[in-house]
Amino acid sequence: MKKIDRSNKVRTGFHQAKWDEPVIFELSQAGERGVLVPQADPEVQECAGDVLAGLPPALIRKTPPALPEISQPRVLRHYARLSQQTLGADVNMEIGQGTCTVKYSPKINDQLARLPGMAEMHPLQDESTAQGILEIFHATDLYMREISGMDRFSFQPGGGSQAILAMASIAFAYFSSLGEADKRDEIITTIYSHPSDAAAPHVKGYKIIYLHPDKDGYPDLEAFKDAVSERTAGFFVANPEDTGVYNKRVLEFTKLVHEHGGLTGYDQANVNGLLGVTRAKEAGFDMCFFNLHKSFSTPHGCGGPAVGAVGVLKHLERFIPGPLIDFDGEKYCFNYGFADTEFGIGKVRTFYGAAPVVLKTYAWIRSMGPDGLYQVAKTSVLNNNYMFKKLMELDVVDAPYIPGKQRVEQVRYTLEKLFEQTGVSTADVQRRMMDFGMHYWQSHHPYYIPEPMTLEPTETPSKEDIDEYIATLKYIFEEAKADPEHVKSAPHSSVCHQLDESGMDDPEKWAITWRTYLKKYK
Amino acid sequence: MMKKLGLIINPIAGMGGSVGLKGTDGVLDEAIRRGAVPRAAEKALRSLMVLLPLQGELTVLCAGKEMGENALESAGFSYHAAYQPVGSPCSAADTQAAAQAVAAAGADIIAFAGGDGTARDVCAAIGESLPVLGIPAGVKIHSPVYAQSPEKAGELLRLFLTGHTALTREAEVLDIDEKDYRLGILSTRLHGYLTIPYERRFMQGGKSPSPLSEKSQQLAIAASVAEDMADNICYFVGPGSTTRSLMDFLQTKNTLLGVDVLWQKQAIATDVAELEILSYMDKTPAKLVITPTGGQGYLLGRGNQQISPHVIKKLGKQNIIVAATPSKLAGLKGCPLLVDTGDPDADALLRGYVRVSTGYREAVMYPVE
What we know:
heterodimer, A: alpha/beta, Aspartate Aminotransferase, domain 2, Aspartate Aminotransferase, domain 1, seven-stranded mixed sheet, 11 strands, 35% helix, 10% strand, B: alpha/beta, five-stranded parallel sheet, 16 strands, globular
């Protein structure tokens, strides 16, 4: 038998499963069933009577829902096949998901959340029967306070954007309490902060003022001085921004906002490079939030469940969304007090936060300890700068701003040179990366950095993993020079090849439900 | 089915520049006497090379002989010549007639190799009736209807022809007066607009909630500017498609290339000159709404000379509302907005930072130099 050659790190033999799987509605066969529920015993039937009679008539459907009719094994095959057509976190290295901080979510934490005692709980249970999870909420609140310097956390927001909306609502409530809400109608942010730092306050009704970076990539302080005024309600910003550049003059910004009477909100969705290094409070922020599904390892889960834990300093505590969880010395209980005050923002979501997510966060923090959290920051910054240095050695890769200096936990690179030399764009590279089972992300829109590539290794990958990712990129860059058409026509080993995207901007062509699809295309 | 490409080459474009003539309009004989050789076909070929992989499926409708046919022949494309030039050398009339013929023959997009003069001819012939894209080959390339290089033009055409982008936006057709320019006077005029394709990676999408077209971005800006308008202030609205969408939003008459006057959200005068602007300012408080030119980012001094240094000084910076779509700002690639009114004091007044309205209740702090 021949020895297997492992000298090449690039998975040139990868091929994704392709099942030509129909949409589940197309698999439906009239009368086919997954489970045939047996009739109840006559005795039971008699005892229960007509159980549906109590339903309000207006809520009873005239026609049954148009659900697919399909047997269990066919359902199972359908979803198993679809799962093989995805590039999930368990099969690929998530280095290419820059800004998303996709790190390893320990499986044991998933198991904890699935324990019957946890999985079978209901948020409407009486607090006396939920002391365990309430204790975990309370303890996690205390940990978050320590990590950020804030005085109180709410776990209610279901994600980062909702946490930013909560911060905007807190700002609005705060200025309403001072009688200044009408006058202060502007939120300042930066173009390299997450777009939600603008979008969520916009939803709240604020005008948004964006700052562009100065020549070094820091938010332009001179422009900021021109922007901040007595109209400023808040300054919402990420630091480091998407570029991985840390604004070391952040205190000057927060101080200036405070001098004009505004509030400061720190987007710490991704706090990976700063855990145990810096805190929101010391950087001059009144509020901050953490995405537990990013920096605190709970899975992203395809849009949920998630938590954007929002924390505030004392002077904003009475505006925080509730209920919160208090400990009275003997037992844990819900505190609706803040939410119900005249200016309290109330709820931004039902209940008090996704309990399994908070449990996983708690378990992760406990397993890491304070030194472990600091180590996360150090390792993720080291991984990133190792990768940064290796990639910058390639002639087609560059990174704008502060040449020669290191980045924090991620880098926004530019492949402009590759594009100029070969005509291969960052979008082409993204599609080609899929041929090796890898994710790759460009940038938020619009692209302020040409041909962008945003990579964030986190603390998870080993040196071998990072080397494989770099080797794969390098392979594609070489290919772009030798055979650009092959890269431009990628992916070749993926489920779908290229799509006609011309309908993407035309709502008339969109079919976001099966019913719409039938109406428009059958 | 793949879209149909139209191709028009202005064979004499760029000839004046190579021999120091700052343009070829009206001085072709002199350029030839000085030894200029045609270069435009070579530029067009560089774009065509990018399209070579599509060769088998692509239908190209072109103008005859050196206006496109010869280049396609040498690159090995199959084509249909929809127009034959009348004389040699070709004239502006040939470019115009060719554009009409190629459009009538069913082209989905017309690529034209030339300079600002060629863009003017294409604009005069077909206006904004179908998408076009300039392959830079002329001496003067002030109009952002041109790609940055022939290769980039080829790349954009490839994306459009294969359905990877269907997005289009309006871009200015600018030209300087060559006679004045040869005398050392720079005066730019806005001659109209052409519809050009652009790539979706320069716009909203991806992680952002909704992909917004250039048109919707302009509409959002219009709604925002209109909302902030006061009834006791007179508004001068400068040329540009961004500012025109404000007038369309207010459903009031407007001119594409001129300065219009709004009072209580209705046009009370269109295409006014400097003196009229000044006389309105004597009667009422006033504000100005302007948009920079695409690509180069000129706020003043290119195509809006009615807004004179005198007008600027009288208005003051606080009464100037600047509007531009995020894609337009991104297209400046970090370069500042420019002012060149010809008066150093007026220019100095505008330097520093301006709030550029970029959407509904959204603004960007942007430097002006």
